[in-house]
């Protein structure tokens, strides 16, 4: 056994090996140590290897899924080694001592799950592969629980942002690719071949060319090759559901890097988990598939005004028709997760219940479609989705006839094929039913014959059917001519067999085995039928999800009095009465009111410098505007009185100083890395929010950096930007930067207490309220009064010297300064170029030298 185990262990590579022994999966050696710690189960030993006891732990097969879920969550991958023959087959093959053959039947990894118990219903599970080919990176991503697959290409420096958008739970890259992200799974580079990828995709979808699906580049196809090879490996050759790939253009979506996503808390809050995130505040989907689609929409807001308008039109229509929306949501809520059931069925891990879910889901989709089809003025997007909801009539009818209303998850016991579907199966069931009744009759007969009223006929898996009597009555059955034969003695009871019972039991077993085989073959036929329609079923699932998202968005909008945004060309951003959906919900829960604020950015006023006290609402204001842009371009309503948004190509957020100690960078370093990314990438069409840049270092350094960054954003990037700062000195930028304006969040001191109004007003902040905020926070009065005297001294010093920013007024704008220098260089160059040195007398030459020196101001 050790030899077999070690061979499989070798094959499992860096996965934990689940080694099937009877009713348990056992783990040995290091695997056992790792698993027992993660799962908190007992570590024992079994036998010896090289003179040492072998550490072992095990999990029961029937409960393996929950243990697997915990291991996967902890970042492990697991290889499942099953017995691939029965003990009887092993005996026949190699004699009584032969070991049952085992093989790894699949690998369970975070990105390749299909089991309902292991997946989160409201979250997609993405597996991605990436590789670089002649300077461009191809990315293939799929969710095998629903079969969706997309291919895209990007420049190497945009890989991190693309991966952040995809949020893959597993990433596969070629060995030896240095730019490949840390933590990715490395596979042989030969698997990432464009020709190989193309051939596999053609083979899977049975087409001679991929043109019908979209235009794919060589790097996209290479990544697809790597992805499919990995799926082959983990499924041991059995490929999961893969739908035709979509080609995704890199610039089709609003770009956001990882830091921006994290700071806007789109799908996950800063402290981890969904609670407190944007999606948590807006998700009103009634199906898991809808919630997954919404997450995808929010991760990849659109760049096409037409596509955004289509989504918005549908949301508005459902917003307007409240009763219809209610109806629709009630119908959708009752539907099973068709996409995921299909994923399991195609992966060969489907159960009768999954087939039942397909039947119910598709029938429900048809009803939803029928309900919508008769309506007038249906939005274009919905009109396009309607055909996808219908069209499964034959399959639904067939499944309705074939399956019982609520089929079980296990098929080992049968009982899922409906009666009336197969006459032969019905007959087998009648036979076994008759035999069961005959056994019940036998019990009464035996009681009569023996006079033992406590006699019972029972059944267990070891003995099958048997007769049981209490010990004290056993004598009668033990008599030589009684017709009963003894089988087992228990404490207080004895068990017997009898010929008639044996015959009836055999009839049940035989009929049962035939019935099971018949059900099994029907099951396979039904699976094949579903697999053959997989693309159409997946389209139906996607259509239901899209309708659920729109209805959910409409519901949220109605709940919160949200408005339809206008997404336009141009570089303005006009939001009236904007609110932050998460902060507003949190305040509402405490019975407090959120103060709505306006934001009006335009080409001539594109950088707002926002000051005001701590806790005054600056960060909230910055984020709410970024979120409104994101929601609008994702095709949803926004929390504002009105919103007119010039399409944004990239969104950047640098909010708060979030430590990233895990990556070994200090807060300030993180801040600067992210700021550098913004300065390098923001375009005129981008929207940037910067919160207290420079806060993480000394006052002088911080102010200097904040100053220079604001100038660069204004002069070079020329993007729309909200810039929150504590440095009053920055207000002087308004003198030199014509498209920069000053704003502040209002506060008032009343009877010595600070009142934060959370209201945005024009003009610079009049003063800081640091001490008042500190008092509000409960800093002891003694410390506050000491701080006050220090402050008085500092302010006196400032009045005398002109303060921190004294002299900055004379500082030319950095771009202007550079241009001036370049201009001077040019005159110098021109003069020199015009000189005919050979024709100059020494005296002229000297004169010219004097002139040049004078011009250079030296
Ligand atoms: N518009 C608003 N209406 C009502 N309450 C608000 C509003 N904006 C912010 N708040 C409340 O004020 C708190 C602080 O807001 P925020 O963090 O945005 O302030 P800040 O000015 O950025 O503070 P700091 O400078 O300390 O980072 C929020 O948690 C929220 O409870």
UniProtKB/TrEMBL annotation:
Stretches assigned to the DNA mismatch repair proteins mutS family domain = 686-702
Instruction: List the SMART domains hit by this protein, alphabetically.
Output: MUTSac, MUTSd
Sorted alphabetically, the keyword list is: ATP-binding, DNA damage, DNA repair, DNA-binding, Nucleotide-binding
What InterPro entries does the record point to?
A: DNA_mismatch_repair_MutS, DNA_mismatch_repair_MutS-lik_N, DNA_mismatch_repair_MutS/MSH, DNA_mismatch_repair_MutS_C, DNA_mismatch_repair_MutS_clamp, DNA_mismatch_repair_MutS_core, DNA_mismatch_repair_MutS_N, DNA_mismatch_repair_MutS_sf
Source organism superkingdom: Bacteria
The UniProt record gives the binding positions of ATP as: 612-619
Instruction: State the PROSITE patterns in the record.
Output: DNA_MISMATCH_REPAIR_2 (PS00486)
Looking at the Swiss-Prot or TrEMBL record, what is one Pfam family this protein matches? MutS_III
The answer to whether the entry has keyword Ribonucleoprotein is no
By its UniProt entry, which HAMAP family does this protein fall under? MutS (MF_00096)
- Tell me which family the UniProt entry assigns to this protein: Belongs to the DNA mismatch repair MutS family.
Task of the protein = This protein is involved in the repair of mismatches in DNA. It is possible that it carries out the mismatch recognition step. This protein has a weak ATPase activity.
PANTHER family linked: DNA MISMATCH REPAIR PROTEIN MSH1, MITOCHONDRIAL, DNA MISMATCH REPAIR PROTEIN MUTS FAMILY MEMBER
Spell out the protein name for this chain: DNA mismatch repair protein MutS
Source organism per UniProt:
Novosphingobium soli
What gene name does this entry carry? mutS
């Amino acid at each position: 056994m050790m030899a077999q185990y070690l061979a499989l262990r070798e094959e499992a590579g860096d996965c934990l090996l689940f080694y099937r022994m009877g009713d348990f999966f056992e783990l040995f050696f290091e695997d056992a140590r790792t698993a027992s710690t993660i799962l908190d189960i007992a570590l024992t030993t079994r036998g010896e290897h090289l003179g040492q006891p072998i550490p072992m732990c095990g999990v029961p097969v029937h409960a393996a899924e929950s243990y697997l879920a915990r291991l996967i969550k902890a970042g492990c991958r697991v290889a499942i080694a099953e017995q691939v023959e029965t003990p009887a087959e092993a005996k026949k093959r190699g004699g009584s001592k032969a070991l049952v053959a085992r093989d790894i039947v699949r690998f369970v990894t975070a990105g390749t799950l299909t089991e309902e118990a292991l997946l989160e219903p409201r979250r997609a599970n993405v597996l991605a592969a990436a590789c670089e080919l002649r300077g461009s990176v191809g990315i293939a991503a799929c969710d095998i629980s629903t079969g969706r697959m997309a291919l895209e290409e990007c420049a190497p420096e945009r890989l991190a942002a693309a991966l952040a958008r995809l949020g893959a739970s597993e990433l596969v890259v070629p060995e030896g690719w240095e730019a490949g992200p840390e933590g990715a799974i490395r596979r042989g580079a030969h698997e990432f071949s464009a020709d190989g990828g193309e051939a596999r995709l053609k083979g899977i979808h049975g087409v001679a060319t991929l043109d019908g699906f979209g235009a794919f580049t060589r790097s996209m196809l290479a990544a697809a090759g790597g992805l499919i090879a990995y799926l082959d490996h983990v499924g041991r050759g059995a490929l999961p559901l893969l739908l035709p790939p979509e080609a995704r253009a890199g610039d089709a979506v609003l770009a956001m890097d990882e830091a921006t996503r994290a700071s806007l808390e789109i799908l996950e809050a800063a402290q981890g988990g969904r609670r407190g995130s944007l999606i948590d505040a807006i998700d009103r989907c009634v199906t898991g598939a809808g919630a997954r689609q919404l997450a995808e929409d929010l991760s990849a807001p659109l760049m096409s005004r037409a596509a955004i308008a289509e989504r918005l039109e549908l949301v508005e229509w459902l917003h307007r028709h409240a009763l219809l929306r209610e109806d629709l949501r009630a119908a959708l809520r009752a539907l099973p997760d068709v996409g995921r059931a299909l994923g399991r069925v195609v992966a060969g891990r489907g159960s009768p219940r999954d087939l039942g879910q397909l039947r119910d889901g598709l029938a429900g989709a048809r009803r939803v479609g029928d309900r919508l089809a008769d309506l007038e003025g249906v939005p274009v997007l919905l009109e396009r989705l309607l055909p996808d909801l219908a069209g499964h009539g034959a399959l639904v009818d067939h499944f309705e006839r074939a399956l019982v209303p609520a089929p079980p998850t296990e098929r080992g016991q049968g009982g899922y094929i409906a009666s009336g579907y197969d006459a032969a199966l019905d007959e087998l069931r009648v036979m076994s039913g008759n035999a069961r009744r005959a056994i019940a009759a036998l019990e009464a007969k035996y009681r009569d014959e023996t006079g033992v009223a406590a006699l019972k006929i029972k059944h267990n898996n070891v003995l099958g059917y048997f007769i049981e009597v209490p010990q004290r009555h056993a004598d009668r059955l033990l008599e030589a001519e009684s017709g009963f034969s003894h089988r087992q003695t228990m404490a207080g009871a004895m068990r017997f067999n009898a010929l008639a019972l044996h015959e009836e039991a055999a009839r049940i077993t035989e009929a049962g085995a035939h019935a099971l085989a018949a059900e099994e073959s029907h099951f396979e036929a039904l699976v094949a039928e579903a697999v053959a329609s997989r693309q159409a079923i997946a389209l139906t699932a996607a259509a239901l999800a899209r309708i659920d998202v729109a209805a959910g968005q409409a519901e949220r909008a109605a709940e919160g009095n949200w408005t339809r945004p206008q997404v336009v060309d141009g570089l303005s951003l006009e939001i009236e009465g904007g609110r932050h959906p998460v902060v507003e919900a949190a305040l509402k829960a405490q019975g407090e009111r959120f103060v709505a604020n306006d934001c009006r950015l335009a080409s001539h006023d594109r950088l707002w410098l926002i000051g005001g006290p701590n806790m005054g609402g600056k960060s909230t204001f910055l984020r709410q505007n970024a979120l409104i842009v994101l929601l609008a371009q994702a095709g949803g309503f926004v929390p504002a009185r009105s919103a007119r948004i010039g399409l944004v190509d990239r969104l950047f957020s640098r909010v708060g100083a979030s430590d990233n100690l895990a990556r070994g960078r200090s807060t300030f370093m993180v801040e600067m890395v992210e700021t550098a990314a913004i300065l390098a990438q923001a375009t005129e069409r981008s929207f940037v929010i910067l919160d207290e840049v420079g806060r993480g270092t000394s006052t002088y350094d911080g102010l200097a950096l904040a100053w220079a960054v604001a100038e660069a954003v204004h002069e070079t990037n020329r993007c729309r930007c909200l810039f929150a700062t504590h440095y009053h000195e920055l207000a002087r930028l308004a003198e030199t930067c014509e498209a920069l304006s000053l704003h502040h969040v209002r506060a008032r001191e009343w009877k010595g207490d600070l009142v934060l109004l959370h209201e945005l007003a024009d003009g610079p902040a009049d003063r800081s309220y640091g001490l008042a905020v500190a008092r509000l926070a409960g800093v002891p009065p003694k410390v506050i009064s000491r701080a006050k005297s220090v402050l008085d001294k500092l302010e006196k010093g400032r009045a005398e010297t002109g303060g921190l920013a004294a002299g900055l007024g004379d500082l030319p704008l950095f771009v202007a300064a550079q241009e001036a220098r370049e201009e001077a260089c040019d005159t110098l160059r021109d003069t020199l170029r015009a000189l005919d040195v050979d024709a100059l007398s020494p005296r002229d030459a000297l004169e010219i030298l004097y002139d040049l020196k004078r011009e250079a101001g030296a």
